Amino acid sequence: MNKIFFATVLSIVVMSCTMNRNASSDSGLLLNKKWTLTGWGKNNDALPATMKEVFIQFETDRVNGQSGCNNYFGSYTVKGSTITFGKLGSTMMACNEESMAMERKFHDALEKANKFMVENNVLKLYQDKELIAQFK
Q: Which of 12, 65, 85, 99 is the most exposed place for a label (fewest CB within 10 A)?
């Protein structure tokens, strides 16, 4: 009886270690990576070709990056798959009108984000169930 019990427990442990872990809301997956914006909005629209690289980097409780024209920084919190960005600060450089408009949309998207998922090395930010930004 003990052998059957031990074999069953061992099987469960082995299966749990080999399960698909491609999709996760583990906040540790956000850290130590430069996440580059690849698209956004519910249609996952591409960035204008004239834009600088837009990216986000997460530290333990801080976030920073480039939003197309200016550098930005601020705080964030994660609990499960919920993410909340605090008030963001940024440098105040002037850029072309298209870049400035895109930057405003990007900051608005971060303020609206309330869920995230990392799947196949892609970070997706959502407002409820609607995809608002995707990073690789």
A: 12
